[in-house]
């Protein structure tokens, strides 16, 4: 069972997804869909983050393949520095704004101080890796007016 870092435990409801950065979704998806037999949803462009995202499903678990959609995407910098691979873990929260407020009150270092739009109509915020043992963490609030993507 995957458990969140202690600082996130009071607000986290479970693992939302694991994000993997790839240079090209088109070149990478076969290993997940054909070789592993994972189902996928359509590719979504997330303008705010300048990325394209393919959600893959292993039962109820989600894996997101994330590719840069422009040269100035933060994911472009990640690929240049580290190459493809694990980018972040994302955690389900009931209310991302309340989660941000709680973490700010505890002086947890955040990347986002306000929710922003994520893939599939979610609201998200990122926690700085320095606060979570070196792993970038995302907080994800599912939309109340849309069913979760599948």
The general outline is: globular
Q: What's the helical proportion of residues?
A: 10-25%
Q: At CATH's second level, what is the architecture?
A: Roll
The total count of helices amounts to: 3
| End-to-end distance | 22 Å
Question: What's the average pLDDT?
Answer: 91
CATH top level assignment: Alpha Beta
Count of beta strands: 9
Structural class: alpha+beta
The description of the largest β-sheet is: 9 strands, mixed
Low-confidence stretches: none
Strand/helix succession: EHEEEEHEHEEE
What would you note in describing this structure?
It is a single chain. The chain is globular, with a radius of gyration of 15 Å. The protein has one domain: 2,3-Dihydroxybiphenyl 1,2-Dioxygenase, domain 1. The protein has helices at about 25-35, 75-80, 95-105, and strands at about 10-20, 40, 45, 50-60, 60-70, 85-95, 115, 125, 135-140. Strands 1, 2, 3, 4, 5, 6, 7, 8 and 9 form a 9-stranded mixed sheet that branches. A hairpin with a 4-residue loop joins strand 3 (about 45) and strand 4. The protein has about 150 residues and is an alpha+beta fold. The mean pLDDT is about 90. The longest helix has 11 residues, at about 25-35. Helix content is about 20%, strand content about 35%. The chain starts with 11 loop residues before the first strand and ends in a 9-residue tail after the last strand. It has 3 helices and 9 strands.
């Amino acid at each position: 069972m995957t458990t969140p870092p202690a600082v996130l435990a009071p607000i986290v409801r479970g693992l939302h997804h694991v994000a993997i950065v790839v240079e090209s979704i088109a070149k990478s998806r076969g290993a997940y869909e054909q070789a592993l037999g994972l189902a996928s949803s359509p590719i979504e462009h997330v303008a705010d983050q300048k990325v394209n995202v393919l959600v893959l499903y292993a039962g109820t678990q989600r894996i997101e393949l994330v590719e840069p959609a422009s040269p100035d995407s933060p994911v472009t910098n990640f690929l240049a520095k580290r190459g493809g691979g694990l980018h972040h873990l994302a955690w389900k929260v009931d209310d991302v704004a309340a989660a941000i407020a709680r973490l700010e009150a505890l002086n947890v270092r955040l990347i986002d101080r306000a929710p922003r739009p994520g893939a599939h109509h979610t609201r998200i915020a990122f926690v700085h890796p320095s606060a979570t043992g070196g792993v970038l963490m995302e907080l994800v609030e599912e939309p109340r007016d849309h069913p979760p993507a599948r």
